[in-house]
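Researcher: Next sequence.
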Amino acid sequence: MFLLEPENWTLLQAMLVFVGCASVIAIAGTRITGVVDQLADRTRIGEAAAGAVLLGASTSLGGSVLSVTAAWNGHAELAISNALGGIAVQTFFLGVADMVYRRANLEHAAASLPNMMQNGLLICLLSLILLSPYLPNYTIGGVHPVTPVLLIVYAYGIYLVRRASEHPMWRPSLTRDTREDQPDDANSKLSLAGLWFRFLVLMIILGVSGWALEPAATVIASKANLTQTLVGVLLTAISTSIPELVTSVAAVRRGALTLAVSGIIGGNAFDTLFTAASDIAYRDGSIYHALPEDSMFWAALTLLMSGVLMMGLIRRERHGIGQIGMESVVIMVLYLLGVALLLW
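Model: Next structure:
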């Protein structure tokens, strides 16, 4: 009965539920990395596509369920700040993964056309979200017209990424530090049905954990007198994004650099759909027109961070500052400045 009555939780109880769910998300997110890497080799779809769709969607499931649940309960600020804050912190995690990979700048070593295409798609989707509040506050069945546009743009963008991967019109220059996506022959002998079963079980665990995380976050915001934007950006966004940090670092250590980068960028593109799903769940009109200024700030900051990342993917600095690319340093500084401004 305790879990079914969040309105009666104390601050300590809410924090315990929050920490418990975040821990489950971290563990399940870690385990799903290896499964996706094996699926990429077993199905021959490649690490870039697997990272964008399978890893990006699965590790983002906890956050997406949280945003939709928050929107359904009328907490638009928490729903949007969780989505946008998650994209920002996951881009920050890419800089952390760059620090782990000591051989060269990660943007240089994992250069690929699909990764650049995915980041371009992310910039387009974020721009649509930023543009939405300036459009007429008009809904059809409670859904703003931008929502289906976001879904269509995402689906078409993934199609273009897949085509670019199969029939590239541009290729990065290969250097001794470039790590190409080479399937592991040992993974081709694994049971495909078994891999899909493990993948679905871990996805369900992530989804249930995200659902349980939402009431805990709401109670924490209420009991601790914090804004929902602050809770969304610094608590739920970070906790539900832990899988991206763990999976990107784990992928780098496995040598799956393309998977590490595409998992972050692909997950970010998928996370923009949190707003579309949240708009459908939100029953008080257009969720885009309920965006507070803090959420708009995070959308603009994330757009800036994505632009810096795109420049890094194109520039391909080999070593940078102590093997860390200058773009990674700028991205991390931008995020930390954003957190400081939010707290201030």
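Model: The first helix runs from residue 11 to 43. The chain has a mean pLDDT of 79.
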